[in-house]
Amino acid sequence: MTLHVDFDHDLWVYVPAEWPWEGFASLEQWSSALVGALSDAYGYDASMREWLTATVEGMSRSVDDEEHRFAYLSRPHEAIGIASIYELPARTDAELASLVGVGDPRATRPVIAEPFTGGRLGPGLTATRHIQDEDGTISVVTHWAWRIDERDVLMIVGDFDLARFEALRPDYDGLARAIGTAD
Fold first, then answer.
1. Measuring CA to CA, which of 10, 11, 30, 158 is 20 to 30 A from 38?
2. Which residues, at least 6 apart from 40, have a Cβ–Cβ distance to it below 8 Å?
3. Looking at the domain assignment, is residue 141 inside a domain?
4. Is residue 71 a part of any domain in this protein?
5. What whole-number distance in Å separates Cα of residue 12 and Cα of residue 73?
6. Which element (helix H / strand E) includes 85?
7. How far is CA 109 from CA 49, 99, 139, 151, in A?
8. Among the residues of 96-143, which ranges form H helices?
9. Are 99 and 116 in contact (CB under 8 A)?
10. Would residue 167 count as lying in a domain?
11. What's the confidence (pLDDT) of residue 1?
């Protein structure tokens, strides 16, 4: 099975980790084109362009081996979000609920898995948990999970800014619903 994400291009940007990619020879060429387009759209000054370049290049450099990363960049001067999607061999030793964080000992309150429907992958589960870091900071982490044949598909979003997460939650759910399998 190979995933295909039919995402909203007005909200999300796929973040590649290997080069060349889609006609871009290098990370720098891709980030220059992306930052240039956003700067033209929003009139960013030199310091904002520099910050945004460092941000998107950092997003690309930190992609995990099995990860498909998407960045919410519709209004980067207001909010940026990252969603990570994984397609992995099914963890037959684990219930799907454990893959969405049910039972996580770091959670500040019990984590409840809920059905997630309406997506291209069919019925799945989602759960949101709040985790207190060592320094006392509360972060929010949400997982969406599906088990299809012998594969687990996971989408993970985490944020230390609870208000930003809540504001972007409908867009995260929309991205999760856009995940499907390639023909």
1. 158
2. none
3. yes
4. no
5. 6
6. strand 79-89
7. 40, 17, 13, 29
8. 96-99
9. no
10. yes
11. 63
Q: What is the CA radius of gyration of the chain?
A: 17
Helix (H) or strand (E) holding 124: strand 124-132
Q: How many domains does the chain have?
A: 1
Does residue 52 or residue 117 have the better pLDDT? 52
Q: Domain for residue 75, yes or no?
A: no
Whether a cis peptide bond, with omega within 30° of 0, leads into 89 is no
**Tokens of residue 1, six digits:** 């099975």
Residue 128 backbone dihedrals phi, psi, to 5 degrees: -115, 135
For residue 122, what are the domain limits?
A: 83-181
**Per-residue pLDDT tens digits for 105-125:** 889 999 999 999 878 899 999
Any alpha helices (H) in the chain, and if so which ranges? 27-42, 46-61, 96-99, 162-177
Q: Using CA atoms, how far apart are residues 41 and 10, in angstroms rounded to an integer?
A: 12
Lowest-confidence range among 15-19, 103-107, 165-169?
Answer: 103-107
In the chain, what are the helix, strand and coil shares in percent, each to the nearest 5?
Answer: 30, 35, 35
Mean pLDDT, the chain, whole residue set: 94
Cα 152 off chain centre by: 16
